[in-house]
Amino acid sequence: MIQRLCIIGVGLIGGSLARALRSAGVVSTIVGCGRDETHLRRAVELGVIDSYETDPGQAVKGADMVMLAVPVGAMEDLYHRIMPHLSAHAAVTDAGSTKQSVLTAVRAACGFVPPYFVAGHPIAGTEQSGVEASFAELYQKRKVILTPEPDTDPEALRKVRAMWEACGATVVEMPARHHDEVLAATSHLPHLLAYSLVDTLATLDDKAEIFEFAAGGFRDFTRIASSDPQMWHDVCLHNGPALLAVLELFEQDLDKVRAAIAAGDGEYLFRVFSRAKAARDQFCLR
Ligand code: NAP
Prior knowledge:
This protein is an alpha/beta fold. The chain is built from 12 helices and 9 strands. It has a 6-stranded parallel sheet. Helix 4 runs parallel beside helix 5 and helix 7 (about 175-200) packs across helix 11. The longest helix has 27 residues, at about 175-200. The protein is globular, with a radius of gyration of 21 Å. The two termini are about 35 Å apart. The model has no long low-confidence stretch (mean pLDDT about 95). The structure holds NADP nicotinamide-adenine-dinucleotide phosphate. NADP nicotinamide-adenine-dinucleotide phosphate binds near residues 35, 39 and 72.
C-alpha cells in the first residue's frame, strides 16, 4: 500500500497512473504537482488527485512514493528542487521515455544516482496529452521497463515494481543503455518519421488537396504526429546517439528502395515488402 503518492506532472502518464492505482485500491493519498494551477485544479475535480502543490519541494514532503512524469528535459531542474525535501523512506521513480538522460539528470543533481531512485518507462501511451486524456486502463497488459543501477536499493525496486503491477502492467528490467537503443528503434524513430512526413506534405502548395484525400494508411502511419511536440523534442535531443544510429540504418535501406524504384527493380521491392509484412505479422499481430 502506498500511503502518500506524489505525482509531479499530472498529465496523460501521471494522471493514468493515479487513476489506475486508485481503482486498484493500493494508494491512500495522491498529491499532484505541476506548473499550471488550472491543470491541477482540473485534476482534483476529476478525482485524479486529492490535493496539489505548485512547488515540487512542498509536494514531495512526506511522500513514500514519488513519480516524475514530466518531459525528460525538465528532470534535472526538478530533481534539484525536490532532493532536499524527500523523506528518508521515499522511493522515487520516473516515466520518462529516455533512460540514460534521466539517470544523467539525477546524477547531475545529486552527484550520484541515489539507491532509492528507480528509473522507469511505461510502454504505453496515446497521442493525447494532459490529465483530461488520462484513463485507469492505460497500463493494463502493457509492459513497463525499469532500468535499475548496480546500487539500486532492492526495497525501492520492489515497491516501484509492485506499483506498476498493481496497474496491470508486466514489469521487465534492462540496462538503461539497452532501453535507449531499443526504444530509439521502436518508438523514437517512428515518431520522427511521422512528424517529418506530415511536415513535408504540409509545406507543399497543394497540401489542402493532399490532406483531403488522406486515407486510412496515412492516418494510421501519422497518428503519432499529433503527439506533444515539446515531449518529442525532448526525447529526440535526449536520446540523440541511439536515434542517429538507427536513423542512419534506415536512411541506407531507404536509399536502396529508392534505387530499386528508379531501376524498375520490382523483385527487390517485393522481397522487402514481403519480409516486412512477415515481420510485422509475426511481432505485431499476435
Ligand atoms: P503530458 O500529458 O503533457 O503531461 C506532462 C505533465 O507535466 C503536464 O501535466 C505538465 O503540467 C507537467 N509539467 C511539464 N513540465 C513540468 C515542469 N517543468 N515541472 C512540473 N510539471 C511539469 O505528458 P505525458 O504524455 O504524460 O508524458 C510525461 C512523461 O512520460 C514524459 O517524460 C514522456 O516522455 C513520458 N512518456 C510518455 C508517453 C506517451 O505516450 N505520452 C509514454 C510513455 C512515457 P503543467 O503544464 O501544468 O506544468
